[in-house]
Amino acid sequence: MSDSTFDADGITLEKVREYVWEIPQEGEMNTPARVLASEVLLEEIKEDKTLQQLKNTTHLPGITKHAICMPDGHQGYGFPVGGVGALDAENGCISPGAVGYDINCGVRMMKTNLTYDDLKGRETELVDSLFANVPSGLGGGGIVESGIDTVDEILARGVDWALENGYAVEDDLRHCEDEGHRAEADSSKISQKAKDRGKNQIGSLGSGNHFLEVQRVTDVFHDEVGSAYGLEEDQIVVLIHCGSRGLGHQTCNDYLRKIEKQHQGLLNTLPDKELAAAPAGSQLAEDYYGAMNAAINFAWVNRQLIMHRTREVFERVFDRSWEDMEMDLLYDVAHNIAKKEVHDVDGEERELYVHRKGATRAFPAGHPEVPKAYRDVGQPVIIPGSMGTGSYVLRGGENSMELTFGSTAHGAGRLMSRTQAKSEYWGGDVQQELEEQDQIYVKAQSGATVAEEAPGVYKDVDEVVRISDELGIGDKVARTFPVCNIKG
């Protein structure tokens, strides 16, 4: 290994410049692959199959420029988590595995005018009330339990459905990616089985790494952008992280099976069957895109309903209206998604299926798709850390379009499998330590969940964000620290 190369078990990365490493194009690869990371993070990334998976993605037809792995990258299903792949929308393909099972897993942050002092002494009451009122864990149970007609409406209309039914205000739509609605959604392309799985889960966190966290803002790094986002030190904010639940999982599964049957020829050219893709222009590609957009709408409504319920809990605990507490949505952004976007590729404007799996859209100031409220400063990007470290708000950086198709990281990124985490941590001990040492109050359906999500299971979110900031793909705006956390 020299200063200009990094060897990772047979895969050699060449240093393009500081924090940009390239796996050169060879053999059947259609493009090179790039990893955006420090050497500290590369040492962690090389421990699993991330780099081999990244290399495999370059075999997808129509992939442009390079496959990209973010600083929080780790092994996923076929396509690495933290991966970005832009595939030509005419001559390329769309891959459910490159979106992930939890379609539109994402995060939203809600602001308040409360300070940490307003909350001190009420942590137990607040965490208990949130846990009792926001459904979480495996299986059914949601805020809205409905028939298939309602599910169809949610799949078609997104957050507009929540607005009409009293679960949202106009301002919520204005501060959500795509205003909480993908017009290309086609609910008829979602299977009955997926709809049945979703109908009792509308407004629920689910399990795994999903959570609702009350946080305090500890640092504002950029006064002008912080002010535009309405963030200041010591302010209480709420972060919600979840996706499309069983409906999204079933939809991904349905289309992977269909692709295996209908596009075996393409599948046979790929080094990993988990990268299964439908050729652009095929009926199955159109069907999956319609179904995925419908699942995206479902996930936005899911997070909207959880936010609505959180507002109600705060009203009871603090005995005033949510409007008085200025519980307004800062932003909601997806990090498991594929979208048709136009990007400059070698001086030519091309429509691409930009797959972001465990990666967040990060459009810079002036981009027409950034909500009007933030267009002058850049799109908010929300990066959760672990429940013992803290999270970040960034803004889309000016180099993101050139380097990453307008993307950055989505979180700290796992270091340890769930099985390994449960063998190394005991949930009750983690809970007690967080409360005694850091005044963080955690409530979960089981101790196993807490063990799986222990702070030591994750990469260093500070380092992940530092690389994003240094590369100018997502600039640091503010940092937050947990106060109360509920998990499935």
Report on the architecture of this protein.
The chain is α+β, with helices and mostly antiparallel strands and about 500 residues long. It has a domain at about 5-135 and about 205-245 and about 320-415 and about 460-485: tRNA-splicing ligase RtcB (Alpha-Beta Complex), CATH 3.90.1860.10. About 35% of the residues lie in helices and about 25% in strands. It is built from 17 helices and 20 strands. The strands form 4 sheets. It has an 8-stranded mixed sheet, with helices on both faces. Strands 8, 9, 10, 12, 16, 17, 19 and 20 form an 8-stranded mixed sheet that branches. A two-stranded antiparallel sheet has the order 7-11. Helix 4 (about 125-135) crosses helix 12 and helix 10 (about 245-260) packs antiparallel against helix 12. The N and C termini lie far apart (about 45 Å). The mean pLDDT is about 95.
Q: Identify the strand order in the major beta sheet.
A: 1-2-3-4-5-6-14-13
> What's the CATH H-level superfamily name of the domain at 5-136 and 206-246 and 319-415 and 458-487?
tRNA-splicing ligase RtcB
The main pleated sheet reads as: 8 strands, mixed
Structural class: alpha+beta
Percentage of residues assigned to helices: 25-40%
Mean pLDDT: 96
Question: What's the alpha carbon Rg, rounded to whole Å?
Answer: 21 Å
Query: Which CATH class of the domain at 5-136 and 206-246 and 319-415 and 458-487 applies here?
Result: Alpha Beta
CATH topology tier name of the domain at 5-136 and 206-246 and 319-415 and 458-487: tRNA-splicing ligase RtcB
In the CATH hierarchy, what is the architecture of the domain at 5-136 and 206-246 and 319-415 and 458-487 at level 2? Alpha-Beta Complex
What is the strand tally?
20
The best one-word shape is globular
- Helices, by number, come to 17
Our measurement of the CA-to-CA distance between the termini, rounded to an integer number of angstroms, reads: 43 Å
- State which percent range the strand residues make up: 25-35%
Enumerate the spans where pLDDT stays under 50 for 5 or more consecutive residues: none
